[in-house]
Design a protein that fits this description.
single chain, alpha+beta, SH3 type barrels, 8-stranded mixed β-sheet, 20% helix, binds calcium ion
Amino acid sequence: MILDRTHDAARRSWVDSANGGDSDFPIQNLPFGIYSRDGGGPRPGVAIGDMIVDLRAVGAAGLIGPEWATLLAGDDLDALLRAGVGTIGLLRSAAGDLLDTAADPAIRAAIERSALVPMAAAQMHVPTSVPGFTDFFAGIYHAEEGGRLTKADPPLTRNYGAMPLGYNGRASSVRISGEPVRRPLGQPPVDGAPEFGPSRWLDFELELGVYVAQGNDLGAPIAIAEARDRIAGYCLVNDWSARDIQFWENQPLGAFNSKGFSTTVSPWIVTQQAMAPFRAPLMDRLHGHPAPPRYLSDADDQAQGGLDIQLEAWLSSAAMRDANMGAVRITATNARHLYWTFAQMIVQHSCGGTNLRSGDLIASGTISGPTREQSGSMAELSAVGTIAIPLPTGETRGFLEDGDEVSLRARCVRDGFVPIGFGECSGRIIAAPAVPN
Ligand code: CA
């Protein structure tokens, strides 16, 4: 993986809030997103500190070339992603030069005059049109614990070590961080019998996602050596899950209403280039699994297709907020616990002929570590509601109650580099709709 001057830890921005090591968005990150303000239309921007730089305004001021105009004209980033990882990297480099303390003072003045927007004044949007959403199951500790908790024998299915398992999710209900999440209706079993009503076992799932850059034609699989270059960048994903509905409905065809009601994403696409310093070897094989089959094997991908990202989930209840208590951290894990790389997921997705499209969202599956404290869902943290999770108000949780807010956070830290983060991926549970007559 190529490291260059854009990763230089000595680099600083003239946007002061980007410096000092605490911001998710130092000049070494520069993720892209879609924002709007004051009722205006959605526009592309780049995050720096607690500010957004409007990319169309930067273009209009002549600070980037006219060739960018068509890629930044839409109300999503699909066109930019379709142009490919190299082009996305060029835009990130260009933005870095404009925001560097070494930039010409006239450039700074022009951006401050016409293109700098406080994040606090902006409404963020899902950054692509999300033509497709796919969710994998690449967190092996989650897969195994889920099997144990549901008394599957063996807990890990025999196919798990052979290929990344996934399912086609629901794209239309992907929502941006901050939007409320309505408790779904379905058939949660009551005293063992299915009864239509609100889910009582509402859960979160801590996941990473990638957005697809260039897709593939129908019937034309992507080779493993090319797969990483199909990844535009990364985000956090909360794949909200109604466990009671899920456990009842998922035989034999898999999750449906238990997952399709809402999926929350963080606002920014953290680019492939920005993540270069935080690559890691893929975790070791477990359970005597043989090496992956040839079409999923690539030495470079095995050596640095993993990701070293510290991941956390934080919870606040309505009572905690009423008492002015901050959110509590309920889990801390790391993306190194993924058993398959995103490149392998992309290969597996396309190998049967499926066409991926620019802007598609592909999520990892719940990322849990080997211990209960590192679990990426309430079902694991509470052992399906049998272990009470204490909150500072004296309340306890097995699953999520109305008014609960879950926030996912991600942070990449490595000696010699400036830490970067992903921004927040949060959602608050609101009451289920009335049961229709
Ligand atoms: Ca999931």
